[in-house]
Each structure stands twice: as structure tokens, then as C-alpha cells.
Amino acid sequence: MNLKITSLFVFFTFFTAFGQETYNVSGKLIASESETPISFANAVLMHNDTVLKGSSSDTSGTFTITNVAKGTYKLKISFLGYTTYTKQLEISKNLDLGTIALQKDNESLDGVTITNKKPVLKREIDRLIFNIQGTALTEDNTWEVLRRTPGVIVINNTLSIKNSTPTVYINDRKVHLSASEIYQLLEGTPAETVKSVEVITNPPARYDAQGGTILNIVMTKNLIVGYHGSIYGNFTQGVFPRYSGGINQFYKRGKFNIFGNYNYRHSKINRDNDETINYLENTTTTSVWNSDINRNRWSNQHNFNLNVDYEFDDKNTLSFSGNLLYLPYWKRNTVTNSVIDNQTAANEDFSLTAINRANEDKHNLGLNLDYVHHFEREGAKLSANIHYTDYDKANDQHVATDYTVVSSTDFSTAFTTHSNQTTNILSGQVDYELPISETANFEAGAKVASIETNSNLWQFNIENGVSTLDVANSDTFLYDESIYAGYVSYAKNWEKWSLKVGFRGEQTEIKGNSLSTNQINTQNYFELFPTAYISHKVSDKLNVYIDFSRRIQRPSFDDLNPFRYNFTDFSFATGNPRLQPAIANNYKLGVEIADKFYIDAYYTYDKAAIYELTLQDNDNDVIQYISSNVENNVNYGLDFLTYFSVVDNWNVSVFTSIFNLEDTFTLDNVSVSQKKWSNYTSIDNNFTFLKDQSLTANLSFLYISSTIQGLSEVSNRSLVNLSLRKTLWNKKVTLSLSLNDIFNGQEFTNTTRYFNQNSFYRTNLDLQTIRIGFRYNFGNTKLQTNQRTKSSAEQERLKD
């Protein structure tokens, strides 16, 4: 398979040998009133209002646009305070335009308030697009852009859309390795080159069938030569202080674009839980466990990101990107104090204190090689990608428990665990786009992925200071998975109607081997994933649309791992190698009114949905966290979204969803179903102040009513955030202040009351914080970068 992928890539890069002959366009810019050179002006070549190539003037006022193919272009030169210069050019040889004098534009400076563009919300047939190019949002970081995107909910630094965590893409390539890492990655990435964010609730056939909603971050193409960078730092005070910082650097010269990023995060985070578990025999309570749990987590984390683009010519580009997450230090201390009331015999009461100390180190290395070839036919494109991941995680844990018993001698227990997981992923992908006509488009592609995972767990019980291997709780698990995928897609536009249909097929082959039990589990299946989108423009103010997509949720590698990982003597987590993939069918009917109001009715039927269920074992008084397939999950509801300006310096997005969740599952051969109507509402206010619009503010409100998650009902939560941002020194310096969860409304409870399960949990996360930030931009701050971070689809199924 590796040979096939490599051969395929070499075949497509062969096109680079046939690049067209190219030319240079140059000139010198001066100010008309003083004849002094103008530095850092933008000079771009356009065709049909699309920017194709560009450069910027140096300190002598000279600019050179390189690698220009023969043809007709419009030259556009712009610089703040001067009238934009335009000229039609016919290029068939190297062209020196000589000296160009820019005229001063007196109306663009003194006495006139600068007006920034405002974000625009627009719907296309298969996605909702939040366009922020040229707006104040591009002066923030990429995570903040996602947080401000209408319809996106952020809870505990985790993205959520329609009750699930979306998959993040950058320029149609999947990002990041696990859900917990994306916050640090994007929070340290400047948004200056973000063009738009696409919310794709029913992804088309081009995208992997794995997962649900997609957030695709579209980055603008880098045009301007030179160097620039930024350094930044943040300090956050919650229960404990934490801080982060980093540096971004970018350089473009000639055919090369290079972007490098490093960021570091040091954190200590607190979490408190109160728990009450009623263990039962039939309907009679046999014992009640009341526990107070405090958990502190320390971590030092490094992120490195490197992107290199090489443009052979206008038609061919080769790109390399690599990102490394390195976690050399991670520690978690969990202290559990429990009082156990035996309801059958008073003299059997006891209490305990359990201390769990865990240490972990991890690295995630992702490498990508991309090739893009543009054909002579406008819009026709061939792209190829090879991806490799190397993942290694090691964890050591020591658990000691002291028991105080009413009627007998006190005693203690202790054990240690040592675990390791290594994963290697190799994938290759090819995509082809062909405009059939001005109103029709065809796409096709193929992908191959191979995943190999090796996991080990050893538990040692400690008695009288002597460690003894616990064979029953030790194992090695080998896992191999191969996925072969292909897709076709067709889109057509008429005057009032639009249509897009696609089919994606994926063949999956899995083998899992538990060495201690000699148990081998295999799965081999093919699934077809159709997608369809129809849109009808009823009038200039009304558009009606309907969508359908079929998706799959494959188990994560940890979900399939059969190890029993003990947290304490009375709680453990375990995977399930027999987990089946979950198949979801998604339907949506919507209406768009006046390009401002969006109303969607949706229905999702998810067969064999995968949950980590929290189950109490009433025979042994033990809590189990078990990955399981439920029979089905049904989710339907009504969404309302709008984005508008109240006044010129105040815009608002409002999103509310009324939905019903229903889960059906079988426990001890008894079928149980629970359902509940719920609501979440978010209101995001963005303000701009001062004449130069250098002061901005954001006030956001989020409310989530009580809802169900798996077997539990989760109480309502609310969140109020306030942030201020001030730019100084011609936007070279940015100062920020954020108040998060001002009223501590994200404390919540989980209640389980059904059949033989009876428990209550209260959770207080370390989310009420105050944060100050600083960013300094240096070099040519007018540059646009090629920054991006990529990973494979399969990496998303790695868990922390």
C-alpha cells in the first residue's frame, strides 16, 4: 500500500516538469508630491476581479511580481493615504513599468472616521459561510474567530455544533490530533489570513464520512513578499494561575513561502466533584457512597508548526507542513474522600481516602506533503496529499487507599499501572475538480489510509512494600485498520434552482488482537454514503433548501482497547473491541429570509451510537466507565440564526435551537429509553469604539437548558463572557482583557435515575477566569501568510 501511495504522488508531481514560460512585472513607486519612494505598497495582478499574483515595494519603492504567465491582467497598486492606481496589462515578455507616481488622497486621512468592513454571513448550497476578510476579527487569533462564528457554541474550551463536537479543517484539510489540543493550537494562531469560516452541518462527498459537522477555515492566498512576525503572551488567573506564549514568523521570497510557529503553555487547573451513589438490590438501597473529589492537573506543553510552499509556476505548487505537539510534563493528583453508609448493617459502615497520582508524557508528530496542479481550463484542479503521523503516549499511575472501618481493623491498599500507546498512520489522497460549464461542476477523488496501534498495560499490586504483577489486569493489544475510499460529486445551478449530489464509498478492514487472552476480533465492511442538496430561490428575499447526508462514527482506538484501567479500588474504565461503527442519517429542511434570517428543521437517526456509559455494578459496589453501542439515538429540532447590525458600531448574532434528544439502550436485558426537549441559546454582541476603531469589545451570553447525555440528565448551564481589545502604534501592539464565566454559571449536575442505576454528580470546572494578553507585530505587517495546520482524518480518533 505504501508503494501505491508513493507512486501515485510521484505520478502527479510529474506535471511540474511541464510548467509554462513565465515573466516578471516590475516598477518603482514614488509619492507625487515629494517624489520620495513609497515602501510596502501592495501591487497585485488580477483577472476577472480575482487576485492571481502580487508583491510589495521595498525601501527603494521597487516592486517585482514574478512567475507571471502570458495573458491579460489588471494591475492594482494601493497604499494607505494614496489613490489606488490601476492599469490594464498585456504580458508576453518581461515588463518594466518604470516610475509610477501615486497621488495623495487627502480625503482618506484627516477628518474622516476609518470604517472597517463588517463580517458577512452567507449561505451556499451545502454550507453557511462567515466571511471575515478585512474585518477587525482578523486582528485576533483563529480560536476567537471560531468562537464568534454564528451557530458555534464553546463550552469549556471545546467547540460544539448541534450537540456534537465538529471536526476542524483548514483549506479542506483536517486539523489537529484530538479534541483537547485544538484550543491551544488555534488560540496561538493569528487570524490575519483567515478569509472565512464554513459551517458544514451535512458535509458533501468530498469529505471523509467519519464524524459529523465540519468547521472549515478558509485561508487567503499569500501574495506579498518580505518578512514579518509576532510574539504574544497570555496570563490567566482561575483557581490557579496559568500562562502561555509564542512566536509566529513568516517569510516569502521568489517561489518560496515559509511559515514557522512555536507556542508554549504552562497550566494548573482545578476540578471539584461531589458524588452520591446509591447501590441497589432490586429496588432496595444496600449502600450509599458520598464522595468529595478534588482533582488538580499540571501540564507543560510545546507546539511547533512549519509550512513551506514552493510555486514552480502559476500552475504547480508543492507544499510541506509539519506540526509537533510535545508534552514532556503532565501530572494529575486526585484525592477522593468517601463515606459509605451500609443500609443493611450499621457495623459495616466505613470511610476511605484514595490518592491517585498520575504522570504522562506524549508526542504527536504529523507530516504532510501536498501537490496542486491547475489545468489550462479555468477552475480545473488536481491535488494530492500524503500524510504521516507518529504518536506515542506513556502513562504511570500510583493509587493508595486508606480504609477506616467501624467494626474492624483499618487497612490500606495500593497499586501502580504502567501503560503505553504508539500509533502510526499513513494516508494518501487525490482530488480532481472539473468545471463542466459556467453552471456545472464535477469532482472526484480517492483515499487510502493505514493505521497501526500497539498498546500495553501492566498493573502491579503492592502488599507490604512488595510489587506483584496483576496478570488479570495486564495485557498487550495490537490493532490494525485499513480504509479505502472513493467519491464522485456533481453540482448544477439554474436560474432559480441549485442541485448538488454525491456518493462516497468506504471499505474498512479491522483486526484487533489481545495477546493475554489470545482473542482476535476482525471487521470487514463496505458502506456507501450518499449526499444531496437542493435549493430553490422563491424570490429575491426568500430561499428554500433541503439537505441529506449519511455519516459514520468509527470507534476511537481507545474505545476498542479491551484493557481494564483502574482509577481506584472502586472505579475503572474499559474499552470494547467488539464495538460496531455507528451510522447516522441526517435530514434538513430550511429557509433563508432576506439574507439575514436562517430557520432549519432537522432530523438525525443514529443507529448504534457510541457512548462512554457510566454504570454502577450493584453486586460489587463499583463504578464502570464502558464504551458501548446504544441501540439508537434520535435527535430532531428547530434552529434559528441571524446576524445583523443594530447600529454602525454594534453587530449581533443570535442563535437558538429547540431540540429533542432520545436514547434507547439495553441494560441487563432490559430495554430503556429516555428523551427530553431542550434548548440552547447564544447571543454574541460585538462593539467598535473610538474614531480609529482601535478599541473593540465582545459581550456574549450562552444558555443551555437541562438535557440528556447517554444515561444521565445534565442540569442547565449559563455563561457570560466579556472581552476588550485595544490596538496601539498603528496596530503593531494589541492589548486584551477577558472575563470568562463571570457568574460561574457552568457548574452543573448529572443525575441518573432508571432501572437499577441511581447516582448524582455535581461538577465545578475551573472556568471562571480573568485573562490579560499582549501581542506585538514586527516586520512588514501587511503580509499575508501561508500558515495552516493539518492532520489526517484518522488522527481525530486518537484520544488523550
From TrEMBL:
A Pfam family the protein falls into: OMP_b-brl_3
Cellular compartments per GO CC: cell outer membrane
Outer membrane protein beta-barrel domain segment(s): 373-776
Signal peptide: 1-19
Top-rank taxon: Bacteria
Location of the protein in the cell: Cell outer membrane
Keywords: Cell outer membrane, Membrane, Receptor, Signal
Principal location class: membrane
Protein name as annotated: Possible TonB-dependent receptor
